[in-house]
Amino acid sequence: MRGFVVDTPRGVLTVRPVHPDEDMALVHDWMNRPHVARFWRQAWPVERLRRYLSAQLAGTESRPMLGLLADVPVSYWEIYRAATAPVGATYPAAPADLGVHVLIGSEALTGNGLGATLIAAVRDGLLAEIPDCGRIVAEPDVRNVASVRAFQRAGFAHRGEITLPDKTAALLVAERSVR
Fold it and tell me: What is the pTM (predicted TM-score) of this model?
């Protein structure tokens, strides 16, 4: 995935692949912030995170992406093939379904609707860029109430709780046909 640009009520959102050499300090910092580390559990040393990102970029199942709002980095995304991920076994996944993980790096940017704005923009950008994709799913930890609410405000339907290897998650789904 090469990325995309979407207009939002808060400015232009550019979503582009992470560049491990250029973006490592930023992503590492975000992963180690308490509001992120609690749910992402990737407060790893720099070299481990670099290997993780490089492996994603070398593979075909998941892409680490950086979200820049008005040219300012604000979010980290993982966009992945839902059917081949653990979530794919919890619902009737289609081969072109995509899943998203998201974090907002600065805690000061949370709690004001930005998450829902970004999620809706990424949903729209993915559906525009990938015509075969009919569904986008998310599976935040059920304890991450703010994330669940942000996805719902962005138009994702709550389809219940699911058990994944590392958490109990809310299955949130945005269908192309509903939009």
Answer: 0.95
Q: Is 151 exposed, middle or buried (0-12, 13-18, 19+ CB in 10 A)?
A: buried
Q: d(Cα 99, Cα 69) in Å, to the nearest integer? A: 21
Structure token pair of residue 55: 């492996």
The region that residue 70 occupies, defined by phi over 0 for left and psi between -120 and 50 for alpha, beta otherwise, is left
Per-residue pLDDT tens digits for 5-45: 999 999 999 999 999 999 999 999 999 999 999 999 999 99
Residues with Cβ within 8 Å of 38's Cβ and at least 6 positions away in sequence, in order, are: none
Give the domains, in start order, of the chain with CATH numbers. 4-134 (3.40.630.30)
